[in-house]
């Protein structure tokens, strides 16, 4: 069954978010419980709604060599490709954390998402002013693209 996804703008009350994105946000929250974050204790989850109807989730996995840490969003993308193949298309993204903190996708994750996501796909995340939904193109207006001559 296809769920309807709409933009809902900034909202501090989650019930005002449409049901498709609310379910995706809930999936992100649930997977955040599996976070491996012994260093920061910042527990993050991400859920991707794919065009094949599936939801792929990921969580952050930290490392004692901090730079090797992978964020929840990239973890979800890697999982989606591993599970469904390289042709995945992301229709919506939800990012949640269990720390009551803002957690918009970081720059690296935005670039990785750009490989598979439609410009208008909604991205829902905790922002400093509440839960916010933005089209992906506003999060990363000038994504790098490999174009050789
Ligand atoms: Zn990231």
Brief characterization of the structure:
With 149 residues, the protein is an alpha+beta fold. The protein is built from four helices and six strands, in the order βαββαβαββα. The protein has one domain: Cytidine Deaminase, domain 2 (3-Layer(aba) Sandwich).
Could you say how many structural domains there are in total?
Answer: 1
Order of helices and strands: EHEEHEHEEH
Per CATH, the class reads Alpha Beta
User: Helicity level, as a percent range?
Assistant: 25-40%
Shape: globular
Could you tell me the radius of gyration in angstroms? Answer: 15 Å
Structure description:
By secondary structure, the protein is of the alpha+beta class. The protein has 4 helices and 6 strands. Strands 1-6-5-4-2-3 form a 6-stranded mixed sheet. The chain is globular, with a radius of gyration of 15 Å. Zinc ion (ZN) is lined by residues 71, 73-74, 105-106, 108-109.
What tags apply to this protein structure?
binds zinc ion, alpha+beta, disordered N terminus, 149 residues
Annotate the secondary structure layout.
Elements: E1 10-11, H1 19-32, E2 44-50, E3 55-59, H2 72-84, E4 90-97, H3 107-114, E5 122-127, E6 130-135, H4 136-139
Parallel strand pairs: 4-5
Antiparallel strand pairs: 1-6, 2-3, 2-4, 5-6
Bound molecules: zinc ion.
Residues 71, 73-74, 105-106, 108-109 line the site of zinc ion.
